[in-house]
Amino acid sequence: MESIKQTYHTILKSSHPLILSFHLGGKIIPVVCYLFGSWIVSFTTQFTLIILLLALDFYLTKNISGRKLVQLRWWFDVTGTKSDSSTPFTFESYKQYQDYHGPGINPIDSKLFWWSTYLAPVVWATLGVFCIIKFEFIYLLLALLAIGLTGYNVYGFRCCDKWEPGNTNGSGSGSGSGSGSWMQIPSFPNLENIQQLARIQSFFRPG
């Protein structure tokens, strides 16, 4: 009980307590559903619910909590039009806005964001090992999916954190627009990309 109170007071010290709560919840709730969901719902419902929760956590971490808590954002360049071919990622970072005089990064936000982001794939990898030991290969698929999504966020944010604006040759280099689009959420692939996917799929159809 004391640890819960301490966690509550720690979150209250955050600059964005609501977003931080959603961020931590997005990491914890899928694990709880994985461990105890079968006690309440059927396997199909549990499987579907966990996939949806993992996808939601991936989106919230990548597009919302990363921007608000550590002022970092990354996304995969789906258009293939980047002039910098050293990485397929596009980055936006607080480092681009040297003249910004607003509030800096709260140390509570930064610490909890990075710890939870790095810890998530480790937890799922541990659960995956137990799946192999117990021959639960269906649940192993869930663990692998979770490792992929959480690990991809770790990689993206790690590269974004190491990225230096204007340096296109160093590790984790990328391109940030710096054109006032900081508060925008990255758009989904456009219609042209969907059409290209349809053409690829039609190639494998018989006749």
UniProtKB/TrEMBL annotation:
One Pfam short name: DUF846
Localization (cell): Golgi apparatus membrane
GO biological processes: protein secretion; vesicle-mediated transport
This protein's name: Golgi apparatus membrane protein TVP23
Matches recorded under InterPro entries: TVP23-like
Transmembrane segments: 31-56, 112-130, 137-155
Cellular-component GO terms for this entry: Golgi membrane
Function: Golgi membrane protein involved in vesicular trafficking.
Keywords: Golgi apparatus, Membrane, Transmembrane, Transmembrane helix
Lineage: Eukaryota, Fungi, Dikarya, Ascomycota, Saccharomycotina
Membrane topology: Multi-pass membrane protein
Organism of this sequence: Eremothecium cymbalariae (strain CBS 270.75 / DBVPG 7215 / KCTC 17166 / NRRL Y-17582) (Yeast)
Similarity comment: family membership: Belongs to the TVP23 family.
